[in-house]
């Protein structure tokens, strides 16, 4: 059976790319045709309209699409999660110099960012910060980051949507002062000498829900074999002994505009954060391990709480229950056998 699976070029697309390219899908009787999508909005629409059979998708966007809050309303299911964490806040070199935080600690960096943001807003030239989509953990992490020092993001900063593959170029052209995006684009910006990784998403919101495997809800007959293939591919991706091979695969097949050495660092969490070569390591920077694969309905509820906090959905009501029902740990368990 042949299926078309959409993805946005990010390191955490590794499980679906490995499933398609390394024989995991074929072992389950599937042929996966990978479709590289330029933005989350495009991927959302193509999945909703039936041009894709499955997708590597932002968890909050899957929820928003199913609830009719973003793009064409779509009946979806989430039988598997693809990982946790993987994001970071990167700022231009000029903004980092203006911030001049007292330390690299999250609190000091957030306070320094807020001070510059308030000053710029008072001058009538607010900071412009990119996020990958309004319905994304990136948007919520930016708000949590700002909230550490009491900054009202909406009142002081102009948030703009920039698709992940375009974030580095937007920073280069001076169209944004920084962004929150997933790996490897923060590291690509640093390698290009354009910015500084200021804060890791896993420190702002530990074990933050991220991408999911999203499928039409109409009980596709490929659900179980696809979940098994991507789960087994995810186990392979998470094994440290496969990191070098995975990095080469992503460099060659995922169109990430990054070399294998840089990708290996994003997979290990040993990052270079500035043009001077400062290193920073956090093993939880990007998690693809087996413990992240089962779709967790509490993650869906947390995401809806973040949506409510920034006014995307009304507080109360049944949105959290509807979102939780979208996540299907029963389908995951049935597919992998327990």
TrEMBL record:
Query: Where in the cell does this protein reside?
Result: Endomembrane system
Q: Does the entry feature the keyword Manganese, yes or no?
A: no
Family annotation (SUPFAM superfamilies): Periplasmic binding protein-like II
What keywords appear on the UniProt entry?
A: Cell inner membrane, Cell membrane, Membrane, Transport
What is a single Pfam family found in this protein's UniProt entry? NMT1_2
Q: Which InterPro entries match?
A: NrtA/CpmA_ABC-bd_dom
One CC-aspect GO term: endomembrane system
Which PANTHER family does its entry note?
Answer: ALIPHATIC SULFONATES-BINDING PROTEIN-RELATED (PTHR30024), BLL4572 PROTEIN (PTHR30024:SF43)
What protein am I looking at? Putative nitrate transporter component, NrtA
């Amino acid at each position: 059976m042949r299926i078309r699976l959409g993805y946005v070029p990010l390191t955490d697309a590794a499980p679906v790319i490995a499933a398609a390219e390394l024989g995991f899908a074929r072992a389950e009787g599937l042929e996966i045709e990978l479709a590289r999508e330029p933005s989350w909005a495009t991927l959302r629409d193509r999945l909703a309209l039936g041009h894709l059979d499955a997708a590597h998708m932002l968890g909050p966007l899957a929820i928003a699409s199913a609830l009719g809050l973003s793009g064409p309303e779509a009946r979806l299911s989430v039988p598997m999660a693809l990982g946790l964490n993987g994001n970071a806040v990167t700022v231009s070199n000029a903004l980092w110099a203006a911030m001049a935080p007292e330390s690299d600690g999250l609190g000091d960096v957030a306070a320094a960012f807020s001070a510059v943001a308030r000053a710029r807003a008072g001058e009538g030239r607010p900071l412009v910060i990119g996020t990958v989509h309004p319905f994304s953990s990136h948007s919520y992490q930016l708000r949590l980051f700002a909230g550490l020092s009491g900054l009202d993001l909406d009142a002081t900063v102009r948030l703009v949507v920039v698709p992940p593959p375009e974030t580095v170029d937007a920073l280069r052209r001076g169209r944004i002062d920084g962004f929150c995006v997933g790996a490897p684009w923060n590291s690509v910006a640093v390698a290009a000498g354009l910015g500084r990784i200021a804060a890791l998403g896993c420190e702002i919101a530990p074990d933050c829900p991220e991408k999911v495997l999203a499928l039409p809800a109409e009980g596709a007959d490929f659900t179980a074999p696809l979940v098994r293939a991507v789960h087994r591919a995810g186990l392979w991706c998470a094994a440290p002994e496969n990191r070098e091979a995975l990095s080469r695969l992503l460099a060659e097949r995922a169109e990430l505009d990054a070399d294998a050495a840089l990708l290996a660092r994003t997979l290990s969490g040993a990052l270079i954060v500035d043009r001077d070569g400062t290193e920073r390591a956090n093993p939880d920077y990007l998690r693809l391990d087996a413990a992240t694969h089962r779709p967790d309905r509490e993650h869906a509820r947390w995401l809806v709480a973040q949506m409510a906090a920034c006014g995307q959905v009304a507080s109360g009501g049944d949105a959290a229950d509807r979102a939780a029902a979208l996540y299907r740990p029963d389908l995951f368990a049935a597919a992998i056998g327990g």
